[in-house]
């Protein structure tokens, strides 16, 4: 029987409309997911930083903002804000700007890449990402050389030949004739070194133990086996805004070379450790 007010016949139509609206809302949500990051105000003091974020979260903030903990609350020069994840993950690889797989490195047991424009490094094992972290490469006057190199020799600590007041800890050289290396030092959020690649303490100690040194022939005058390949990508665009502080740039992974460039490994000096310099 037909309802006098028509409610019985209208109910199915209303249900269909509601279902359609819900479907449209779900589709819209799928097309516009929550961005992975946001920009929050920079904490004014280290105490405020510690109050806002747990220790593990501060480690992630160091990685994302390319600044060690001491510089997170006092960036100089000023920055738009602090890059913060919208969702916290336990695995730091979840925040990697690098792809999880690098096919060009699949034939190598280990390989390291440093992206200078993005101020970050990545370590791969047989082409699979195993670690990444922030860096501070060479300043404008003393840039880190672009190209492909190999780890050479390491030292738990050594004094810089540029300035004896600079103690370089967890030192792993990759340009022997120039003394350019990975090592622990301040990460202020921009390229600040004298050509070396500065690392956080946890990354410097990890790389020191993970990387492979060169193997020298008897007498130490020739290389029997090169060390772990090191690829330094690009040059830093001084004067341009920091790419890692751009939400658009963070939305896409970095592009790595389709082929791992070949290296030219130079034979060590008569006394490699003594002859090599060391920048900061």
Quick structural gist:
By secondary structure, the chain is α+β, with helices and mostly antiparallel strands. It contains 7 helices and 13 strands.
Overall body shape: globular
Task: Flag low-confidence runs.
Answer: 1-12, 14-32, 272-278
The portion of residues assigned to helices is: 10-25%
Write the H/E string, N to C: HEHHHEEEEEEEEEHEEEHH
**End-to-end gap:** 90 Å
Strand order of the largest sheet: 5-4-3-13-6
Approximate strand percentage: 15-25%
Beta strand count: 13
Q: Mind telling me the C-alpha Rg?
A: 25 Å
Structure description:
With 280 residues, the protein is α+β, with helices and mostly antiparallel strands. It has helices spanning 7-31, 46-52, 55-65, 69-72, 201-210, 247-250, 272-275; strands at 37-40, 82-85, 111-115, 120-125, 128-134, 147-150, 154-159, 167-175, 180-184, 197-199, 215-216, 223-225, 229-233. The strands form 4 sheets. It has a 5-stranded mixed sheet. A hairpin with a 7-residue loop joins strand 7 (154-159) and strand 8 (167-175). The chain is globular. The N and C termini lie far apart (90 Å).
Task: Please give a handful of descriptors for the protein shown.
single chain; 280 residues; alpha+beta; five-stranded mixed β-sheet; 7 helices; 13 strands; disordered N terminus
Topology:
Elements: H1 7-31, E1 37-40, H2 46-52, H3 55-65, H4 69-72, E2 82-85, E3 111-115, E4 120-125, E5 128-134, E6 147-150, E7 154-159, E8 167-175, E9 180-184, E10 197-199, H5 201-210, E11 215-216, E12 223-225, E13 229-233, H6 247-250, H7 272-275
Parallel strand pairs: 3-13, 9-10
Antiparallel strand pairs: 1-2, 3-4, 4-5, 6-13, 7-8, 8-9, 11-12
